[in-house]
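job 3f2a | input accepted
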Amino acid sequence: MSFRATTLKRSQLVGFFLVLTGLTAWSQVANTPLKFADVGAITSTLVQASSLGESSGGSSDDSKWLKVEFHFSITKDAGPYVDEADFKIWIEGRDLLDPQGKPNEGVAVALTGSVAYINIAQGKDVYGVFYVHPSTLKRYCKQGSTDFERTFNVHMEASVGGKVVDVYDKKKEQDPNWYQPLKPVPGLVYRQNQCVFVVTDPSRYPAIKLPADSNN
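job 3f2a | predicted structure (216 res):
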């Protein structure tokens, strides 16, 4: 159970019912073109950006980015390619500076972001990635940036053709809707092409769909 549970408790009975409802609903999805890995589909690690061009060194946790990588497959039902798949992410955090929060407790938040990958070839080992800046990690945690790696949960949704085809949570929850009550904080989760990791593992991840105006 994550740190959020101290303020967002729900009854076990309700949670159990929702889990059964969610599992039943997802078990009815047939011929899905995309599916998250059954185990360990989301991994979060703290990584150091390249020091090239920096005037100060160091590799402490305070200078590391959060890397959230997700593992999925493009199934045979999709054919040789999926033209576009959209992924949304909710990364749990804590805002200790929110005036609506209790002292030393703050408000439970979710850092949100999205990415659209295109021309994804059929295969069982496909990966995507998001990043969060070190200053954001320091702003939205209580025990240090390692909260995001070890304690906080992550929720992801995958959509193809405008329909959600699969969901995954880094940590198992009694309530599959655990992330919905969190206060959303958009604009702080980066796609690979939005940060210093743009040239990291360029062949590991699918191509990112660019904004329409960038094609002109």
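job 3f2a | The chain has a mean pLDDT of 85.
job 3f2a | closed
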